[in-house]
Amino acid sequence: MNPCQTCGACCASYRVDFSVHELDDHGGRVPSGLAVDVNDALCRMRGTDHTPARCAALTGKIGQSVACGIYEWRPNPCHELQAGSDACQRARLRHGLAMLSDELH
């Protein structure tokens, strides 16, 4: 099983800004209803600028069982964050989860 399916820490740690051109109403695939405008060129996944942060597309309980409700249509920053990366490990620690070992990712 992919460790991301039991984690979700990154989705509840980081602000997710991306180009408005990734929104479905601009020809992209990210549902516009799940984003808020930052400026004319950028938008942000709803919920990721809250305290505590939690992406509106995230379902489930952090560290147990999670899923992305728009996995196939998620924005580029979500594609770029890799399991076991420095950002992943920092998010896991922020949520009290053990770091991923090299053999798990």
TrEMBL record:
Superkingdom per UniProt: Bacteria
Organism: Variovorax boronicumulans
Xref: InterPro entries: Puta_zinc/iron-chelating_dom
UniProt name for this protein: Fe-S-cluster containining protein
